[in-house]
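Protocol step 4 of 6: structure prediction from sequence.
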Amino acid sequence: MAEFSASPMIEAVGLSKYYGDFAAIRNVSFAVPKGQVAAFLGPNGAGKSTTLKILTGYLSASEGVARIAGHDVLTDKLAATARLGYLPENGPLYPEMTPLELLRFYGEARGLSDGRLKAAVDAVVDQCGLQAVVEKSIHKLSKGYRQRVGMAQVLLHRPDILIMDEPTSGLDPNQIHDVRLLIRQLGRTKTILISTHILQEVGAVADRVILIHEGRLVFDGTPGEMAGGQPLEEAFYRLTRKQSDEAFSRTRDPESGSGGNPGAGGSAESAGSGSASLRRGEPAS
């Protein structure tokens, strides 16, 4: 496994997000060091997208702090976003534009000068394999190519930190292969956090797994540690089903305690980047 700097580039510190009595995430803490590719894994509805939106400053946390390269994403957002590239699931594109027009538009919005803009556009077009479609309208492109355009836009200002939400969702096998290959190439020089519910993605691109279920972290370690000698599918089922079964048992046993105040759940330990750890607590209801 590659060596990683101890300097955290992506930090979640006690993040919680409440909507009334519902906790979308609760006391989520982890740090991704420089040079690591971490898979943020969980079932649909586990809280992955909510966490990523908080980390990127698109959503405010009810509790906790999110930092990018040491910058608080709420109080020092410009400095944080200068280091960050964020690819949301089904990221917005302007379908009437061509990829070239879109990239020039975003580059100008980021304040790139003419010389720097041309060099940056040429670089990401080559990096993302867009040469054949750069003059076609985006609405005429396949989903795989649209995903590449989104990736190119994310890379345009040369960020050293990337956060990607379900980057292979809805792609065919060849498109998935191409996107995973690009992520592996980017992982040689960048810090990457990629959310997914696809277990094959973990083995294909990640050095580390951070598993969230029902708004809480339940595992943090390497793919091998998570598997524990079993297929990843079995480990995933064991970790997520175990938490659900425990929650169900508590609802049937009044002596074991009830959900109570959504903000009063037990605190999760801070997640490290090397050793595996299990986090157990009352899941979000």
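Step 5 (inspection) to follow. The chain has nine helices and eleven strands.
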